[in-house]
Amino acid sequence: MKVHHLNCGTMRPPMVAGGIVAHCLLIETEQGLVLVDTGFGTHEVSDPKATIDPLSRTLLKPVLDINETAISQVEKRGYQADDVRHILLTHLDMDHAGGLRDFPKATVHVLDSELAAATNPRGVKEKARYPKAQREGVTFRTHQAEGETWFGFEAVKDVEGLPGDILMVPLLGHTRGHTGIAVRSGDRWLLHAGDAYFYRGEVETPPSNIMALKLTVKQTETLRAQRLSNVERLRELKASGEAEVFCAHDPVELARLA
Ligand SMILES: [Zn+2]
């Protein structure tokens, strides 16, 4: 398996120096191409108002460059949209699920509680974060958060139809059905922790954060206690050196791995 680290969506929130990225993975497997998250896709680039709510457009300031879309980066490597057979999503926020419609042949894997949150949102926050248009015509396969343990994380799922080197590692908190995705590349594990944290310092020892991202994390979290305990476990995993841990939005982590 070959793993590529992609940025599928630069954003320039005014308070965050250097901006943030949408760190996605493109994995070449014997079962075809697999994507982990899709950032923003061609629909967001051509018509941002249809999928990105006004508050997010103001706060996140997405750059929306066609060259950053997952489809464009797949094609640049000599592949086509239909070569992407599976997409695993950490969650369904609009800066993670934007490119789904660019891959009509793909099965999209999410936790069942996440798809339930998107289709039956509770309250204003959930209503704004899951634009319906992004899921139109998309084939979902949902998974329950129950299974084996993996480096102290519980309920880890082997995803049927995919190599055993790709796992869903539920990390509830940011959203109701948020999950990490673990990928074994050669002799080491990578853990894409999605939005379980936003700033690399949160999982370093001792932890640190920057004010603007601390506020963003708080504003966007759904289950606070679970999010905090997951960050604690991610910090332990990182300190143990057993896996390369990274989140979706930190540009320094992406630069280190790309
Ligand atoms: Zn995000």
Automatic annotation (TrEMBL):
GO molecular function list: hydrolase activity; metal ion binding
Keyword field: Hydrolase, Metal-binding, Zinc
Keyword Signal among UniProt keywords: no
A Pfam entry, by short name: Lactamase_B
The keyword Plastid belongs to this UniProt entry's keyword annotation: no
Species this protein is from: Lentzea fradiae
Domain of life of the source: Bacteria
Stretches assigned to the Metallo-beta-lactamase domain: 21-249
InterPro entries: MBL_superfamily_lactonases, Metallo-B-lactamas, RibonucZ/Hydroxyglut_hydro
Matches recorded under PANTHER family: BLR3078 PROTEIN, QUORUM-QUENCHING LACTONASE YTNP-RELATED-RELATED
The name this protein goes by in its record: Glyoxylase, beta-lactamase superfamily II
Family classification: Belongs to the metallo-beta-lactamase superfamily.
